[in-house]
Design goal:
With about 350 residues, this protein is α/β, with parallel strands linked by helices. The protein contains 9 helices and 10 strands. The strands form 2 sheets. The protein has a 7-stranded parallel sheet. The protein binds zinc ion. Zinc ion binds next to loops. The site of zinc ion (ZN) has 5 residues, from loops.
């Protein structure tokens, strides 16, 4: 491993400018339908041009903060799930269904799977091309993980979660191979629901995740796991699932794990369960406006480095920063970079 200690990165989503999309709390009642979300301020070509500019702006912000591995902030996405699944065959978001999701954390209005899942056309390829043309920095691109897609969908076709998930994985794998060929530095699958279903992770989650990665040989592959966005009025139980999940993930082919350690207060000793992985160590909370002190971030990173070589630790937020204001997110990214720098100095690297 020749990686620098404590590289900095983002998880995926970043706040959107208020001129791009109305700003609503994540749990606003009539916007709960998966794939709807807050309204765009513009439409058609105006919207597309505004999204392009929003991507340029977040790349600028991440670059100015000094983030090493950047993303487009998911500025084009209302939902990290349906932006992708809505472009696959087999999903219907016109007639939705009610479903308990996230292990009964949330009763949601979800789309339905009504036929075989297939990828007939590229999904985020153009989005990646745009980012690559706008920045010299290594770029991460995100896709929803199959277990999270299954949890977020009413299945009326497969009748078996593993089978449904394998079909989603095959479609996402076709996409991931193209993103790999285009030059993504990191291809990340977002699987927040892993933390809610440790027994499913063991049963079929790793098999399905590995299916997503077949033939991806240039880009690093990553999986993001968390306890979901903080939402007003919705409990966010921190269940003790990481020991099971991490032991399972150690057996997978995935290169990198994005894990939340800040808001969850999980013990960094858990990193001993995944000695072969690079870990995006979450040390920024997306549920509070209080900006973490670089000193505190450095301490957390150094505590993590007691359990995993620092070259295998990246400094990252717990989760996407979309719930925050742009100013708070900028300040948190600057603190993250300063904290990582401080931690490197202390280690003499
Ligand atoms: Zn997350």
């Amino acid at each position: 491993m020749t990686e620098q200690a404590f590289l900095t990165t983002v998880v995926g989503s970043m706040p959107k400018p208020t001129w791009l999309q109305e700003k609503l709390p994540l749990n606003t009642d009539n916007k709960q339908v998966h794939g709807k979300g807050a309204d765009w301020r513009l439409s058609d070509e105006d919207l597309e041009a505004a999204q392009d500019d929003a991507v340029r702006l977040t790349l600028h912000d991440q670059g100015r903060a000094g983030i090493d591995i950047v993303s487009d902030g998911e500025q084009r996405r209302k939902s990290y799930v349906t932006y992708v699944t809505g472009r696959l065959e087999g999903f219907d978001y016109q007639t939705t269904a009610k479903k308990w999701t996230r292990n009964r954390r949330r009763l949601a209005e979800v789309g339905r799977c009504t036929g075989p899942v297939e990828r007939r056309a590229p999904i985020v390829d153009d989005d990646l091309r745009f980012i690559l043309a706008e920045t010299e920095r290594p770029t991460k691109i995100t896709l929803p993980g199959p277990m999270t897609v299954v949890d977020s969908t009413a299945d009326e076709h497969y009748g078996d979660e593993r089978e449904f998930a394998l079909a989603v994985a095959a479609a996402l794998n076709a996409e991931a191979r193209e993103l790999d060929a285009l030059g993504a530095a990191v291809i990340q699958f977002d699987e927040p629901v892993f933390s809610r279903y440790p027994e499913k992770v063991a049963d079929w989650g790793i098999e399905v995740l590995d299916r997503c990665l077949e033939g991806v040989d240039q880009a690093k592959t990553a999986v993001h796991i968390c306890y979901s966005y903080p939402m007003p009025g919705v409990p966010r139980p921190i269940v003790d699932s990481y020991p099971v999940i991490l032991a399972q993930l150690e057996k997978s082919k995935i290169d990198q794990l994005s894990l939340e350690f800040e808001a969850s207060k999980l013990d960094p000793e858990l990193l001993r369960l995944c000695p072969s992985k690079t870990v995006m160590f979450g040390c920024i909370d997306n549920g509070t406006d209080a900006v973490e002190a670089p000193e505190q971030i450095a301490e957390k990173l150094l505590a993590a480095a007691q359990h995993l070589p620092p070259e295998q630790i990246q400094a990252a937020p717990d989760c996407g920063l979309v719930p925050l204001s742009m100013d708070v997110a900028r300040a948190k990214l600057r603190a993250l970079v300063a904290g990582a720098e401080l931690a490197r100095q202390r280690l003499g690297r």
